Amino acid sequence: MSAQEPQRSLRGSLNSTPTDTPAPALVANQTGPHCLQVSIPDGLFLSLGLLSSVENVLVVVAIARNRNLHSPMYCLICCLALSDLLVSMSIVLETAIILLLEAGTLATRAAVVQQLDNVIDVLICGSMVSSLCFLGAIAVDRYISIFYALRYHSIVTLSRSRRAAAAIWVASVLSSTLFIAYYDHAAVLLCLVTFFLAMLALMVALYIHMLARACQHAQGIARLQKGQPPPPQGFCLKGAATLTILLGVFFLCWGPFFLHLILIVLCPRHPACSCVFQNFNLFLLLVVCNSIADPLIYAFRSRELRMTLKEVLLCS
């Protein structure tokens, strides 16, 4: 087995075109030196993956330790952290196996490598799908808490959140298994891309509506208390900046990966698209970066969670 065969095998399902000809060969034959490929060191994959894993483990431990955080919202945040943890650990595991295969330390048959590839790809794909689902679920939870504040605790209960989380996990495992089994069918890729676009549209619509309601509320308070700082414009600008960061991180981290899937369907043999396929590792690295950013955006902004985390780290 050559040095390049393990990597092609282990990262084949998520980076394969519906044709029999691999994308790297297309690039070499059709695009020549004009194809720009961003080289990602394996050490960077491992470092960022481990950083994301540590972050998300801390979130899960902090929520599990503090009973005050056993609420529907933190249940969803905990599940998001578990999904991001699975994303990071799966990619770290895959990278480590690739390095061991290339170094000759891990010698095994091609059939075993293929089975291992399928298992890791199901883990990666399933954790990605569940991560997107929980991001959407958190947006829905926050929307209900703002627009149905008086009925929130009767609508969103801990038992319902747990059932929703269980349904998301089951759906993610089943859908990812089907995706890996039929990755060479364009319809499967289109379903995955449609799912991403639906989650993006849901989050954009809900968060923009929440921002508009918050600005209206701030303006109403300003009319009742004239001359009281800060002005509502400042509040709205701060909210818009927060929303831009939240949605911007989501789109920048996930967008290239799903653009990659779209191009696999639309132009698997086009030279320009083949150049994009060459940067699959970069797109995968951006997904890991999203797993690093999620705890900062959704978890560590909570003062109580930070206090619990401090107690955990100090073993108090």
Explain what the structure shows.
The chain is an all-alpha fold and 316 residues long. The chain contains 12 helices and no strands. The chain has helices at residues 5-10, 23-30, 42-65, 72-103, 110-147, 152-155, 158-181, 186-224, 232-266, 271-277, 280-299, 303-313. It is globular and about 70 Å long.
The fraction of residues in strands falls at under 5%
The topology string of helices and strands comes to HHHHHHHHHHHH
Q: Please, what is the average pLDDT?
A: 82
By DSSP, the count of extended strands is: 0
Oligomer: single chain
Indicate the overall shape: globular
Helix content: over 70%
The biggest beta sheet is recorded as:
none
- First and last CA, distance: 52 Å
Radius of gyration: 22 Å
Per DSSP, the total helix count is: 12
Structural class by helix and strand composition: mainly alpha
* Low-confidence parts: 1-9, 19-33
